[in-house]
Amino acid sequence: MNQRSSWPDERLIRAAQDGDVTSLTTVVTESQPHVRKFALSLCASRQDAEDAAQEALIILYRKIGTLRATGALASWMFRIVRNECLRQVRLLVSRSDEASAEPEASAERSAEDAVLHRLEAARIAAAVGALPRDQRDVLIMRDIQGLPGKTVARSLGLSDAAMKSRLHRARAALRHSLAAPDRSPDRAIGQPGGGDPRP
């Protein structure tokens, strides 16, 4: 079967939505390589990609009945994987902030400041998620996970100079993205077709 057209067909998806367990299992199995490919292209690391793909397939198994158009399976799965990858980046940003926060400063933070901080973290996560894969990998490993430059270069198979150049481009692209006006987290995450399909 042609790899490019091997998403489950609409009849199979409809049968799965109607509760046929064999069809549902087949839909999940046939979707798996495509979902993994999405995850590998969107997430920061192979481990994150595996986690995102697994989560997306679990959602597919449990919530296939909520898919409105059987022909929209690919775009639905893409959004789920993308949102899961962004969630993982937000967690990294949040952990990094918690590790560097001074106890007295966090205790004095007002509720308004906390909301603004969460919005800014989501905006940063969306901007990081929008970077090209090679730049995103370097930025997350170096600036968010805090790994030494030599470790980042070695794990990505780069020279130190190439890693530094890629990191410089990633930081510049991130600064440019965050400086752009009217880039709310919802708008950044929700294009095209939106993030969570909530009204």
Q: In what range is the share of β-strand residues?
A: under 5%
Order of helices and strands: HHHHHHHHHH
* Mean pLDDT figure: 76
Summarize the biggest pleated sheet.
none
Task: Describe what you observe in this structure.
It is a single chain. The protein is mainly alpha-helical and 199 residues long. It is 73% helix and 0% strand. The chain has ten helices and no strands. The chain has helices at residues 10-17, 21-42, 46-63, 73-100, 103-108, 111-129, 133-144, 149-156, 160-179, 185-189. Helix 3 packs across helix 4 (73-100) and helix 7 (133-144) packs across helix 9. It is globular, with a radius of gyration of 19 Å. It starts with 9 loop residues before the first helix and ends in a 10-residue tail after the last helix. The model is unreliable at 182-199 (pLDDT under 50).
Topology:
Elements: H1 10-17, H2 21-42, H3 46-63, H4 73-100, H5 103-108, H6 111-129, H7 133-144, H8 149-156, H9 160-179, H10 185-189
Throw out a few tags for this protein.
199 residues, mainly alpha, 10 helices, 73% helix, globular, disordered C terminus
What is this entry, summarized?
With 199 residues, the protein is mainly alpha-helical. Helices cover 73% and strands 0% of the residues. The protein has helices at 10-17, 21-42, 46-63, 73-100, 103-108, 111-129, 133-144, 149-156, 160-179, 185-189.
